[in-house]
Amino acid sequence: MKHPLRYLLLLAFTLPASSLEIRSYNPALHDRFLNFNTGNDAGNPTFLYDWTKFTGLGWFATSAHRQPGLVSPRHAVWATHHVSPVVLGASVKFLASNGAIIQRTVTSMTPIASDISGDSDLSILTFSAALPSTVKPFRYLNLANDAAYIGTPLMVFGFQAKAGQGAIAGFLVGDLDGGGPQGDTKFCRFDYNGLTGTPDDAYLIVGDSGTPSFASGPGGEPAIVGTHSTFMEAGSIIQNYDTFVPNYATKLDAQMAALGYRMRPANFTATTLGLSSVTDPAELRQAYPGSIEFTFANTGGQLTGNAELILDFAAGQAPVSVTASGWVVEQVDADTWSVRKATVAAAESVVVEAAWSSMPALATLTVSATIQSDTASTTLTNPGFALKPTYAAWSAGLPQIGQDDDPDQDGMINLLEYALGGEGNSGSMLLSSGDSILPRLAEEAGNIILSYPERSDAAVRGLSYQVETSTDLLALAGATTLPPGAVSSTQAFVPAVPGFVKRTIIWPADSTLRFARVKVELSE
Question: Which residue pairs, CB below 8 angstroms and at least 24 apart, start in 322-328?
Answer without folding.
Answer: 322/352, 322/353, 322/354, 322/355, 323/352, 323/353, 323/355, 324/350, 324/351, 324/352, 324/353, 325/350, 325/351, 326/350, 327/260, 327/352, 328/258, 328/259, 328/260
